[in-house]
Amino acid sequence: MDLYKYEKELYKEGIEFIGGVDEVGRGPLVGPVVTACVVLPKDFVLEGLTDSKQLSEKKRNLFYDYIINHCLAYGIGIVDADVIDEINIYEATKKAMIMAIDEVSKKINLQHVLIDAMPLDILIPTTSIIKGDAKSISIAAASVVAKVTRDRMMYELDKKYPQYGFSKHKGYPTKAHVEAINKYGLIEGYRKTYGPVRDVLEKG
Description:
The chain is of the alpha/beta class.
């Protein structure tokens, strides 16, 4: 798989500033959905970079630092649980992606955006790529930045509420997590429209 394929095609058209966009956190019961938009230089190389889910946590953290230090620009979009409950996770993800793109647009003349599987209605030309985080170097970079950003938020939450085990499951609905919310109840930041959380609310 040539991770530079989409970028190379755009470079040939004279497009220099390409943003890769990805999200993390659509499935968790708690916390925000987080997106990143990353613009890489033409000569960017990072051996082993791929979809963040395929990388160890140690490697993700190393790659995150490298990407942040070597990219031309990056932006983060964060949409919290209350907005997810209000407009649904699909719309919240699009909103977060647009926030990340807007942040980058303030820093650089973004000419094209490659997005992981999500069509966006924005003024900048876009290409939506299914499983883009494993097919585009820019989207792979964005997936790492988004994942590490969200994981660090969950580690902070874990420090405040260690009984929930956020550092282990990052808010996803594991058996241990569902047992914890049934035992300790809900803290702020839970997505009330998600099944296991709704069940706790209904029990009162």
